Amino acid sequence: MLQPGEIICMCGSSGCVRSPLNNCPMRPACHGYDAQVVQLQKYIEEGKNQDDILSAFVKEYGAAVLAIPSNAGFNSLSWLLPYGLAALGLLVLVVTARRWTTQPAAAGAGGVDIPVDPAIDARLDDELRDLD
After folding, report:
1. Close Cβ partners of 58 (under 8 Å, ≥ 6 residues apart)
2. Is residue 14 pLDDT above 60, yes or no?
3. What is the pLDDT of residues 31-62, one digit of tens each?
4. What would you report as the CA-atom Rg of the chain, rounded to the nearest whole angstrom?
5. Which of 51, 68, 88, 102 is deepest in the core (most CB within 10 A)?
6. Angle at 107 (CA atoms; ends 106, 112), nearest 5 degrees
7. Who has greater pLDDT, 40 or 111?
8. In angstroms, what CA-CA distances link 71 with 62, 68, 78, 87, 106?
């Protein structure tokens, strides 16, 4: 059975932004709440099922009236996006942790001899003698 919490109050008041119909903070003075509850009761008395009622509300107010987006078409992205972002964040965390724990080999370490140009070596010796 359809619950009022599955429909968003569409009064548009600043205190009721995107609140479910059963939790509208503007009640009892909310004009949108009264109209929507009367409409909901009318649909229930007509014997409409949950899908028909939600379709009627979507037709009148648009998809923004649904508290829970449908899992069809482009709306399935709203269900998959948080999981995709969490997986991406975990991947970034693992890659960053591996980079931080792996130390690059220091230049000249490990007994590797680097060839020295004799001209540069002589010039360095001259420069160091001039400092004294």
Report:
1. 65, 66
2. no
3. 777 788 888 889 888 988 888 888 888 888 88
4. 34
5. 68
6. 110
7. 40
8. 16, 9, 8, 20, 54
Using CA atoms, how far residue 109 sits from 98, 104, 112, in Å, is: 22, 11, 6
Residue-range domain boundaries for the chain: 4-68, 70-102
pTM for this predicted structure: 0.51
Residues 6+ apart with CB under 8 A from 18: 8
Q: Are 114 and 108 in contact (CB under 8 A)?
A: yes
- How many whole angstroms separate alpha carbon 27 and alpha carbon 33? 7
Strand partners, 66: 7
Report whether 16 contacts 26 (CB < 8 A).
Answer: yes
CB 6 within 8 A of CB 66: yes
The one-character DSSP state at 111 is S
User: How far is 56 from 50, CA to CA, in rounded Å?
Assistant: 10
